[in-house]
Amino acid sequence: MKTEGGSEEAKRRAGERAARAVEDGTVVGLGTGSTTAYAIRAIGRAVDEGLEVRGVPTSFQSRQLALEVGIPVTELDAVEGIDLAIDGADQIANGDGAGRGTLVKGGGGAHAREKLVGATADRFVVVADPSKFADQLEHPVPLEVLPDAHTVVADDVRELSGEPTLRDAAAKDGPVVTDNGNLVLDCDFGPISDPEELAADLALIPGVVEHGLFVGLVDAVYVGTDDDVEVRE
Ligand code: 5RP
């Protein structure tokens, strides 16, 4: 069952707690979204107070925020590794069935870089509020696709019993374009009984740059509430 809730206070607590895990002299992966933004701002305040870190942003949005709050930013191919990555999630499986701890990400269309940075990091921490948990994943899975591949990928998704929707930009008369110049198909598979199998099937579709299922990547989830933070390892 999906848990309702999720306030700005809960997001703030989760993000700020994760920021406290950033150690001096390290490289930190900077995720995307409103919960991670609290972590980025808190890291910026720590930098003001003398913390030395370099940030590897996962999106234009997180890069802009990092620059605004004074975090020195760098690129993945300019560092030897990433010590800690902090990122949000659209849905987190917490049931007892297959795929416990698996995430759906990509609400901001940044999941290709988010997965790369999270998978590279020695430790990948997800920040969330309780509304993000579900016994079984059922959130539509975003696929970043090469622009002229969106119709053939959509056909392949239907063959997997998914319902694809090309993501539209609300403010523009056209599709969302990712930081990598690609399009996003949001694919509704209903309840996902075997996320690992679906992830493998999606990865095999030609034209898919990356899908938003994160299987076996997360080390801990920091769950903020209105008065506390629970760390689930
Ligand atoms: C962006 C993401 C975000 O982390 C996800 O959408 C959660 O965002 P928020 O913290 O605003 O709920 O995957 O691609």
From TrEMBL:
A cellular-component GO term for this protein: cytosol
Catalytic residues in the record: E114
Listed EC numbers: 5.3.1.6
Listed pathway(s): Carbohydrate degradation; pentose phosphate pathway; D-ribose 5-phosphate from D-ribulose 5-phosphate (non-oxidative stage): step 1/1
Binding positions (substrate): T32, G33, S34, T35, D87, G88, A89, D90, K105, G106, G107, G108, K132
Alphabetical list of Pfam families matching this protein: Rib_5-P_isom_A
Superkingdom, natural source: Archaea
InterPro entries: NagB/RpiA_transferase-like, Ribose5P_isomerase_typA_subgr, Ribose5P_isomerase_type_A
Keyword annotations: Isomerase
Gene Ontology annotations of biological process type: D-ribose metabolic process; pentose-phosphate shunt, non-oxidative branch
Quaternary structure (record): Homodimer. Homotetramer.
Function: Catalyzes the reversible conversion of ribose-5-phosphate to ribulose 5-phosphate.
NCBIfam families named among the record's database cross-references: PRK00702.1 (NF001924), rpiA (TIGR00021)
Family classification: Belongs to the ribose 5-phosphate isomerase family.
Name of the protein in question: Ribose-5-phosphate isomerase A
Organism: Natrarchaeobius chitinivorans
Lineage summary: Archaea, Methanobacteriati, Methanobacteriota, Stenosarchaea group, Halobacteria
Gene for this chain: rpiA
